[in-house]
Amino acid sequence: MIHENINLTQIQTFLWVASLKSFRKTAEKMNTTQPAISSRIARLEETLGVRLFERDNNLIRLTQKGIELLPYAEKLLRTSSMLVDRICREEEQQGTLRLGISETVVHTCLPEFIGTLNEKFPSLDLEIKVETTLNLRQELSEKRLDFAFLMGPVADFQVENHELFEFEMIWTAAPALGLPTERPLSLDELAAKPIITYTPNTRLYIELTRQLRKYTERPARVFPSSSAAAIHRLALDGIGVATLPRQMVHRDLAAGHLQEIHCDWRLPGLRFTAAYPTDPYNPMTEKIIAHALEMTRCYQNA
């Protein structure tokens, strides 16, 4: 019988090729070789007795029969996932999750997230990539990542977004910089020192520079950086006044290595989103989203 010769790996491969429109990208996604992907599709086509893809000058597109198969393949994969969820314990579920992380998350809640995720899914392998939000958005859209924590949301109809939390941002500087802490400073007073902040493609940078142009008499020196760790290091070394998440510097504030500088203009928070591609269906991402949302509730109530 036909169904006896079809396996879930072939179905999953079919869905990835249909989504990525590339045998090479599918091979990278499934951690295998391009010949292995071609072989799986060839066996599936042979079993069904139809062509599922047209191959023309390296362009891959579904045939009419491939289009007809698509909803059935998605339903089959979902059903198999439901079976595993019902029968297997969570700690026995396996796979590899390609996780993209914005650097700010690395220095705040990532250790807790990874720790609790490992407890819940000890057989799940993680590939962690730390990148700028701009690059993470690109990799999600190209489906090179399964899941990402980034400053969102991602404006792509094939990417699902879930709002997680907002980091409170503060002005902070080393005591050696000599900025007063007993009263709020104006932006004009802060602009007497270099201001170290996030990159120009962030809401924080855009709003900050707009306010500086509007309310400061002196020309402000703004040093943007894509690295939260670099901003932190420059602040500790007394190079300037920095904008950083309170959660990232709370130990330095308690130890006196940094001081919170109060300003009459409040910094906007950094809003973070959990995002993942919706096509093709990946059952593990829904579990990770549920875990991330639960961790967020605990994190905000801590």
Supply database-style keywords.
302 residues; 3 domains; D-Maltodextrin-Binding Protein, domain 2; 5-stranded mixed beta sheet; elongated; 46% helix; alpha/beta; Arc Repressor Mutant, subunit A; 12 helices
Describe this structure in words.
The chain has helices at 8-20, 23-29, 34-48, 64-87, 103-106, 110-120, 133-141, 187-190, 203-215, 228-236, 246-255, 283-301, and strands spanning 53-56, 59-62, 95-102, 124-131, 147-151, 159-167, 169-173, 195-197, 222-224, 241-245, 259-261, 270-277. It has 302 residues and is α/β, with parallel strands linked by helices. It has three domains: 2-87, Orthogonal Bundle (Arc Repressor Mutant, subunit A); 90-167 and 271-301, D-Maltodextrin-Binding Protein, domain 2; 169-268, Periplasmic binding protein-like II (D-Maltodextrin-Binding Protein, domain 2), CATH 3.40.190.10. A hairpin with a 2-residue loop joins strand 1 (53-56) and strand 2 (59-62). The radius of gyration is 24 Å and the shape is elongated. The model has no long low-confidence stretch (mean pLDDT 87).
Concise synopsis of the structure shown:
The protein has twelve helices and twelve strands. The protein has helices at residues 8-20, 23-29, 34-48, 64-87, 103-106, 110-120, 133-141, 187-190, 203-215, 228-236, 246-255, 283-301, and strands spanning 53-56, 59-62, 95-102, 124-131, 147-151, 159-167, 169-173, 195-197, 222-224, 241-245, 259-261, 270-277.
